[in-house]
Amino acid sequence: MNFEYAAAPESRSVVKIDPVYGHFINGKWVNGSAHFNTINPATEEVLSSISLGSAADVDAAVKAARNAFDKSWSKLSGRERGKYLFRIARIMQERAREFAVLETLDNGKPIRESRDVDVPLSAAHFFYHAGWADKLEFAGVDTTTAPHGVVGQIIPWNFPLLMLAWKVAPALATGNTVVLKPAETTSLTALLFAQVCQQAGLPDGVVNIVTGDGSTGSAIVNHPGIDKIAFTGSTEVGKLIARAVAPTNKSLTLELGGKGANIVFGDAAIDETVEGIVNGIFFNQGHVCCAGSRLILQENVADEVLEKLKRRMDKIRVGDPLDKNTDLGAINSAEQLAKIRELTAAGEAEGAGRWSANCALPENGFWFAPTIFTGVTQAHRIAREEIFGPVLSVLTFRTPAEAIEKANNTPFGLSAGIWSEKGSNILWATQQLRAGVIWANTFNKFDPASPFGGYKESGWGREGGRHGLSAYLKGSAK
Ligand code: NDP
Q: Which residue of 191, 287, 340, 350 is 20 to 30 Å from 387, comparing CA positions?
């Protein structure tokens, strides 16, 4: 039976978007000399004009961060730093609806996700790190060492506010100051966060936000006044940054791409597994580095799982991200849509079987129907490359050893999922899998206390938990 849903749009009146934004440097708004538009990817409506950060803007931000580090932030006790972090977390909670609507407008993700996942988890990261700020000696990190100083942070567009929280909260808790660049297509919640820093009375220059494109990111990476770089984004840009940082004294953490294997054993509870598969690949339009983008099914249950999965996919509601009923929103940009189309066309050309959910897509904006490919082999591009969209590649296996071999046959190593009734099977498989995060009978669960990061081309270092703290202290970790 199909249920009809009346539209239930969230009001955007809670959000005030300025026509033009400057950078946030030394606690003040500084207009850039050049600008670019940010649009709503669901409608292509221009939302605002954003400053394009130049090398001079980055230099001003680094000087402000250095000055704040030397004169105020490094002189504060952990207890005092913690108070600011608590204050930021509380203000984020108070302004949660504003953040959620703004994130959905600028990114295209469903309000259900920005409201229930991105914003609460972002506040939780500040609360969690506020708690550690005065207890670092109990965190198991080397507290005889000092904070790095000025940290340059570059984040992507898939979880704009959450990635900011993952970066800024541990940096401040450990006593560093920050120059952060949001992604070109999703600057607005970072700029709202700058207002929160002002509201919290954070000393000037502790957090600086310079908006811009790849050239702005590159200016941060190459600035001699920065002590550590923390980057989340593509493996390609991660490699460029690793090369740029290699001959310097800068520390570096990289959180890069993935091609997560979601392995379903024959004894799994099929209905729950189907929900987990849907959450694993269609959450956030599949714009998730740890997405379960390769489904690896035991042959004896493959037909049943695929039949139930297709039936479930036909019920995914695609459309207006501000509608509270929507499950799958807009693709973040025309460029990302072109990349998804190119890779899915390659999947068809290489002989995999394509099936898409039967859903009407809006006319304006950037959209892609939930899609699966069956008959995928290891040689196919759609099995090897990150699609970063609502597209699932399905492979099959006969023996557990074959499942592990296929799951590990990737240049990435960020995440994996295991679906099985047997604890012994789950423990055996987790020991064989080469992935930073492994979920059992669930997928895409995040918690500030849980470290996150990858092996191989998925990156260096961990974010979150006590491991993430050590990345922001000299000598504790690279
Ligand atoms: P990028 O790696 O290009 O962007 C990530 C961040 O780095 C953005 O802020 C970007 O700025 C900035 N940047 C770009 N070039 C440079 C540079 N040379 N030096 C320093 N910073 C730079 O990812 P994209 O957004 O272009 O996405 C491309 C692909 O990356 C996706 O299709 C996906 O496969 C993968 N990806 C993976 C993510 C993950 O979480 N692992 C997240 C996002 C993307 P700007 O936005 O202005 O270009």
A: 191
pLDDT band (50, 70, 90) for residue 4: confident
Which pLDDT belongs to residue 196? Answer: 98
Angle, CA of 231, 233 and 235, to the nearest 5°? 100
**Annotated catalytic residue 255:** yes
Residue 96 has pLDDT above 70, yes or no: yes
Pocket test for ligand 1, best of 234, 283, 414 (most atoms within 8 A of CB): 234
Count the neighbouring beta carbons within 10 Å of the beta carbon of residue 26.
18
Whose alpha carbon is nearest atom 6 of ligand 1?
A: 156
Q: Write out the DSSP string of 161-212.
A: HHHHHHHHHHHHHTT-EEEEE--TT--HHHHHHHHHHHHTTPPTTSEEE---
What is this structure's pTM? Answer: 0.97
C-beta of residue 209 within 8 angstroms of C-beta of residue 58: no
* pLDDT at 5 (0 to 100): 82
Q: Which of 10, 103, 113, 255 is catalytic?
A: 255
DSSP secondary structure letters along 296-324 = EEEHHHHHHHHHHHHHHHTT--BS-TTBT
Ligand 1 centroid distance, CA of 332 (Å): 12
* β-sheet bridge partners, residue 180: 153, 209
CA distance 250 to 336: 31
pLDDT per residue over 19-49, tens digit each? Answer: 999 999 999 999 999 999 999 999 999 999 9
Two tokens at 394? 């399905």
- Atom in ligand 1 nearest the alpha carbon of residue 237: 2
**Mean pLDDT of the region 177-186:** 98
Q: How many CB atoms lie within 10 A of CB 87?
A: 18
Q: E strand or H helix at 152, and its extent?
A: strand 150-154
For ligand 1, atom 12, which residue shows the shortest CA distance? Answer: 214
Name 15's Cβ contacts closer than 8 Å, sequence gap at least 6. 98, 101, 102, 105
3-state helix, strand, coil in the chain (%, to 5): 40, 20, 40
Q: Say which amino acid occupies 240.
A: L
Q: How high is the pLDDT of residue 477?
A: 46
33 backbone dihedrals φ, ψ, rounded to 5°: -85, -20
